[in-house]
Amino acid sequence: MIDYLHIKDIHKDFSGLQVLTGVDFKVIEKEHHAVIGPNGAGKTTLFNIISGKFKASSGAIMFKGQDLSGKPPHTLNRYGLSRSFQITNVFNELSVFENILTGVRSRYGLRYNFFKRPDHNLSIIEKTKAIIKEIGLEDVSDLPASSLSYGQQRALEIGITLSTEPELILLDEPTAGMTREETGQAINLIDRVTANRTLIIIEHDMDVVFSLADTISVLHYGKILASGAPEEIRNDQRVKDAYLGEG
Amino acid sequence: MKRSIIRTLCFLSVALIVSLPMSAVAQDTIKIGATEPLSGTFKDIGERYLDGVKYAAKVINESGGLLGKKVEVVPIDSELKPDVATRKAQNLILKDDVKFFCGGTGSSVGAAMSQLAQRENVIMFTYGMAAATMTGAKCNKNFFRACANTDQQSYALAELIARNGYGKVAIIAQDYSFGQEALAAFKKKLARANPSAKIVAELYHPAGTKDYAPYISQIIAAKPDVIFTPNWGNDLTLLLKQGRPMGMSQKIFSYYINDLVTIQALGDDSLMIGNMGAEVYTLSIPTKKNEEFVARFYKDMGYYPTWLRGKAYLATMFWAEAVKKAGTTDVNAVIKAWEGLTYDGPAGLWTMRACDHQTQMPLWFTEIAKENKFFKHAFEVSAGMATAQSVEVPCEETGCPGLAK
Amino acid sequence: MKQKNNSYIGIIVLFLLGALMPFILKRYHLNMLTEIIIFALYAVSYNLLLGYAGLLSFGHAMFFGLGAFVAAVAITHIQGLTLLSAVIISFATTVIAGFLIGSLLLRHKGSYFALLTLAFNALFYAVATKWHSVTGGDDGLSISRPELNLGFTSLSVSSVSSFYYLILVVVGATILFCWYFTHTAMGKTVLLMRENEERMKFLGYNTNISRLILFTFTGALAGLAGAFYTLHFQFVSISAISIDMTTAVLLMVFIGGTGTFWGPILGAFVYIVFQNYLSNITDRWPLFMGIIFVFMVLYVPGGLSHTIMTIRQWFSGRKDNHGDGPIKVEETSS
Ligand SMILES: Nc1ncnc2c1ncn2[C@@H]1O[C@H](COP(=O)(O)OP(=O)(O)OP(=O)(O)O)[C@@H](O)[C@H]1O
Ligand SMILES: [Mg+2]
Fold it and tell me: Which domain holds residue A46?
């Protein structure tokens, strides 16, 4: 039996600074997996490595039996992997519609075509509208991203991540900086859109973690301190000592 | 958005039509475009040529014009770039229906203008571009040369050296097509005019050389009787400035020795005295007509029609003769009229040869002397002439397939 | 839908207006208009590079000059070559050159890239100057415009008006395609890469390849403009491949403004008209052009198109925000 996703002994140092020192865990297909850990633990760095932004110093990313390490982001995206960013990373000058459209047309293979207009393709338009509806931004569909509220921008961030219809979704602190109410909506949204897909989510907010995750991995000092079902982690003494106690 | 594009463009096209002054259609003048570098390094040369052309127009206009019309010179700043010259000339053809062009500077400008003339069926003539190929392999029926080419000028200087009995000759030239062509013609003629003459040194240096010492030592070591060089500009002045103090005391036979600007720039008569040259026009030509011309020019302008001015003047007058003979400004008629036409002007009898449109004319020798009629400093005095026949290159040898039908 | 019809009508009106020009304009002005259309293509190609993709190149003239020289050399050496074949040969050559040079240079970013393009342009210029036997060196190459072979018949395009029609149709259509291109998948891709390249990568776009394709494409468009430049003047010299030609396109684009698609077309118009008039009045015209350039960069950074848009919005009383990049304009146009 081949593992769906195996993060295998990942090391990463930034010119001497050891950030990851042998991260190793597995993700089962359709599982919702949370990665938690204190600030600066290296969670985002891990995402950057999985999604191809950085190369690991050593180790491998095995996805359905294939080694993905070292592959560029655009290739990984075509394998069905898509990520969001901790700091909102959208096309500010573009409308919500065009933001989403950009991902959708990529999924439909309309990336470099010299002759076809993506905005003339009905199925692409339908798909784009569907995603916008899903993230609840129909009312602001024609406004530029920069004019949206913070919560709307975070929703757009998730929407763009979904727009290429990935099977493996990586969300980096999707609710960071949101109000209570917005967080609640975001949990609903994520729950809805990631049903039947594999999700890895980085979160500090334990409410979010416990309401979304099937499995939790704790990243501490560059290593996985513990990995298991939410109940196990909640009761793990080492985790309590290192992390949960303060939060 | 789109509508604004249309509106803008409509507006612009209307603006284009309205704002541009329509050129006068009435043909009460005969326009002649003079392509010269009127800006940049060679501006000074271009302006002197232009001066000559303008003076010719003035003389013609003062004596009743050409075919009853005034001649109007349109200066074209070629910037010494062939694309600039042809572009401006083309515009003049389209705008004012200009049929005649002339120019004296830059063989590259000349070659491009020659091609343009052929394509647009206008006439281009030169009073200064010397590359033999322009009336040789690249000749065409719309291009005329009313000055000597490198062959004729080298022939004349070889003739002069042979005539004076000098047996050992050193030659030095810039290492590019002009220098090479000039030398080849010189050697060919010298071998004929004085079979016993010897080339004791043959040196090429890059154009724009700063240090002539190595070349000068070689020349001195070869112990020539005289030195021949087609060098011009700094390549001539530096050769003299550095050579004379090193002991290179021989007479120099040069293409451009009678250039007033060079002589004045050198500022040291001793470097120049005794050197000799040959040109189609020099101030010192001892004919009655030339003396009258020089006197009139001096009276009108306050300075002499030295060298370039004189050359441009003569060529323009020759062209006017052709138009006069044709009795019309029709290009084909003028071409036909000019072929075989003779012009008896200040520099002797000129004949426009039909086979290649190269003027056959005598070349006038000059020697630089302290005592002269024109200036306090050293300048040219007359030193005889080479007849047109003695410097003639037969039609068959030019490489021109033959223009006259 | 209404917008769409409007643009089609606009295009048809433009071409009809263009077709009428030979009946309205004198030969001299028609000739100038021909030149303007050719340079408009050159400016549009540069704007796709600078305004849309955000790539600052100081070497666009190498493609323009290459296209110009290849057309001239092909016509000189291949007997009976038809006009369109010459254009196709030079287009193909610039495609290959653009691809090779792009592969080499696009590894570098920003000012390194800009400097390298400058260096490459200088290299091309040096080769054109020294390789006398092929390029004619300082003398340049004179050609005669070949006939236009349409398969069933041959047309002469030696007259000012027939050549104008050829340029209006062929170059006009190419410019039109460039406009269309900015709405296509590829056009949007390069535009968005400038906006947020990282996100594009994570959405499955190979941005390096996209940039290379765009660089090649704009180079080939410049080459096409160069080929028609040769055919227009029936002469080409090293000026066509010199830094001056890069300066010229920079000027056109800055005068017109990089913010819109049509700005550089306006820039080409102003540049050519100015050049023709100024160069007749004064030999210092490059100095005046330089002053205009400095003035534009300092005081009208958005170019004429920006000014026109501002005035237009002012009049229509609409105060919607207008940005610097072409992105904003896209929104209003599509
Ligand atoms: N590109 C980089 N170059 C150098 N150091 C880096 C780089 N990226 C991250 N780091 C360092 O690596 C460490 C881990 O950073 P990372 O962003 O992965 O932490 P995190 O777990 O995501 O923290 P947070 O919860 O605050 O988002 C930090 O000390 C950070 O300074
Ligand atoms: Mg982080």
Answer: 1-77+198-247
Residues of B in contact with C27 (CB under 8 A): 94-95
Whether the per-residue pLDDT at B240 is higher than 50: the answer is yes
Tens digits of per-residue pLDDT, C237-294? Answer: 988 999 989 989 998 998 888 888 888 999 999 899 888 887 777 767 778 878 887 8
For an interface test with A, the pick among C203, C214, C218, C329 (most A C-beta atoms closer than 10 Å) comes out as: C203
CA–CA distance, C275 with C39 (Å, rounded to integer) = 12
Residue-wise burial string across C14-31, b where 16 or more C-beta atoms lie within 10 A, e elsewhere: beeebeebbeebbbbbbb
Q: Which numeric CATH code is attached to B1-148+284-361?
A: 3.40.50.2300
Please give the structure tokens belonging to residue A190: 């994520």
Place of tokens 């949206």: A148
Going by C-beta distance under 8 Å and a sequence separation of 6 or more, which residues neighbour residue A9?
A22, A23, A24, A58, A59, A60
Say how many Å lie between the CA of residue A48 and the centre of ligand 2. 10
Q: Judge: C199–A91 Cβ closer than 8 Å, yes or no.
A: yes
**Would residue B148 be called left, alpha or beta, if left means φ above 0 and alpha means ψ between -120 and 50 degrees?**
beta
Of B10, B39, B91, the CB nearest to C283: B39
Q: Is the CB of A218 under 6 A from ligand 1?
A: no
Lowest mean pLDDT among A13-22, B224-233, C96-105, C324-333: C324-333
Query: Domain of C116?
Result: 18-243
C11/B31: higher pLDDT: B31
CATH of B151-279, one of 3.40.50.2300, 3.40.30.10, 3.90.1150.10, 3.40.1350.10: 3.40.50.2300
Cα–Cα distance for residue pair B178/B129, rounded to 1 Å = 11
Q: Is C254 a member of any domain?
A: no
Instruction: Tell me how long chain A is.
Output: 247
pLDDT of residue B14: 54
Ligand 1 pocket, residue A151 CB under 6 Å: no
The letter for the amino acid at A5 is L
ipTM of the complex: 0.89
Q: Is B136 helix (H, G, I), strand (E, B) or coil?
A: coil
Alpha-carbon distance of B38 to B200, in angstroms, equals 41
